[in-house]
Amino acid sequence: MVTSDIFFFDVDGTLVDPLTHSVPDSTRYALQELKNNGQLICICTGRSLDALEDAGFDSIAKWDYYICCNGQISYDKHKQCIHRTPIPHDIVVSCIAKADALHAPLLLQGEKTILTKEANAHVKAAAAFFNEAIPPHSTYDDFDVYMMIAYGEVGYDYHDYNDLKALQFIPGQSSYADVVLKGMNKYTGIKALLKQLNISDYIAFGDSMNDLEMLAHAKIAVVLGNGCFEAKQIADIVTECVCEHGIYHALVQMKQIKPHESFERRTIYE
């Protein structure tokens, strides 16, 4: 058995099948087995806590911690904030101004979740990708923001925002990019939690560009078969796609959980 006290799971493309927008039964079984074995299980996502609640992720497992907005805010199992790094208000205002100049909407996630402009085709495509409702259009009134989302064509590199030196734009697998403070990522949130818990290592599951730092620092990094090339390059295990019971098979391979006859065994590539 590969020992670890704590496991971190990305949501979209890792827990959730990107095609069906559902969590496989094999994943639910695997998470419950980890809990039964006394392990800590944590969500580590670009989504906000509100978005997780709206999507019903509390019904999937009894999570011990939630690291949200790509590491900029974290919560315990009671959903009490334990760590937060808001984006300074002046930087938020500058990013909104740049997006306005490009006639582009910007999503702000924090004490509220709003769009700065009416949803365009890129916003609608991203919302469909995540199977989420489109947030309301409103005016920023200086509330604390922990992450922003910019929108553009799939493959767009967001170079038009390069003069915003305090921010980094992380393109996703649809028509959007996560926008966080430079130097902030999922691992910075994980590192703060590990320090609090006095735990030295962890196992991580991910699939996308915003998972790279989390995967790079993990004792064991598992990437789903549907994951991006960059994530697979740094993985210790590349497992099957979400829909092929990827999380379940990786955990069985590591002898973290017992096999279940309902889920066909497949080959896992290392």
What is Rg? 18 Å
**How many structural domains?**
2
Sheet of most strands: 8 strands, mixed
Q: In which range does the helix fraction lie?
A: 25-40%
Structural class: alpha/beta
CATH classification class of the largest domain = Alpha Beta
CATH architecture grouping of the largest domain: 3-Layer(aba) Sandwich
Order of helix and strand elements from N to C terminus: EHEHEEEHEEHEEEHEHEHEH
Let me know the number of strands.
13
The oligomeric state of the chains shown is single chain
Tell me the CATH superfamily of the largest domain. HAD superfamily/HAD-like
Look at the structure and give the mean pLDDT: 94
Shape: globular
**Individual helix count:** 8
> Which residues form runs of ≥5 with pLDDT under 50?
none
Question: Keywords for this structure?
Answer:
2 domains, 270 residues, 26% helix, magnesium ion binding, Rossmann fold, five-stranded antiparallel β-sheet, alpha/beta, Hypothetical Protein, Haloacid Dehalogenase-like Hydrolase, Chain: A, domain 2, globular, phosphatase activity, 21% strand, 13 strands, eight-stranded mixed β-sheet
